[in-house]
Amino acid sequence: MNRFPYVIPYPYICADKSKSISFMKEYIMSFFNAPVTNKIPTCICSVAGLHTYISTNPQLEELTRKVRTGLGDKQVFRKNKQTLLPYVTPAGIFSYCKEQCMQVPSGLFIIDIDELASTEEAAMWRDRLFADEVLHPVLSFVSPGNQGVKLFIPYRINPFLSVEESFDNALHTAWEYLEWKYELKVDRANADLSRACFLSHDGEAKINNHKY
Fold first, then answer.
1. Where does the BT4734-like N-terminal domain start and stop, copy by copy (predicted)?
2. Topology (CATH) of 8-207
3. Which of 15, 37, 40, 151 is 20 to 30 Å from 194 at the Cα level?
4. According to the model, what pLDDT value does residue 25 have?
């Protein structure tokens, strides 16, 4: 089993862009090893590879367990999460985790819903929102804090707008929809293209096999 949700080594897509075209049929993004201060990607991963990693990788399962031992103290939990967990940039491929360093947009943005009442409620919202017929998430899993949900949502890049404008319009529309339909408050810190999404083990993570 691969240690990472590996698709191709990062330098490959830079070395021969003609060979990278076939991968554009999938949603792909950059994968980064911990800690969060590491801004150089390890590899490029697909949603399918990421789902397999989140749901089956034993190393990630152990890291998630270690991080959650600090849930009783917000500062300890935050430090553990930022030190131990790998992360991805769902918005696309980056040469460096910085908005100006985007190379290829994925056509995805992340929705982060935290501070739910329980682990059971998080699992309920993971499944319910995954089935939403407006958002059509391609991936849904319980967040590192065990009381939240992360959703990867596809959007259309408008050829008459910049990627940033298309991303921003889609993101704000999704926020408003979630608050209107479900009365859910989302984490609005996920507003920039290079926003990191920390990964955590979830054996019941959901993937839409028809959309990745």
1. 81-205
2. DNA primase, PRIM domain (3.90.920)
3. 15
4. 57
Cβ(189)–Cβ(150) below 8 Å: no
Q: What is the pLDDT of residue 122?
A: 97
Domain ranges within the chain, ordered by starting residue: 8-207
Report phi then psi at 74, rounded to 5: -60, -40
**Residue 84 token pair:** 């131990």
Rounded to 5°, angle at Cα 171 from 167 and 172: 120
Dump strand ranges (E) for the chain: 8-9, 28-32, 43-46, 87-89, 92-94, 102-105, 108-113, 139-142, 149-154, 197-198, 206-207
- For 119-134, give the DSSP string: HHHHHHHHHHHHT-TT
- Adjacent-strand bridge partners of 87: 32, 198
> What pLDDT does residue 191 have?
84
Mean pLDDT of the chain: 88
Q: Count CB atoms within 10 A of the CB of residue 87.
A: 22
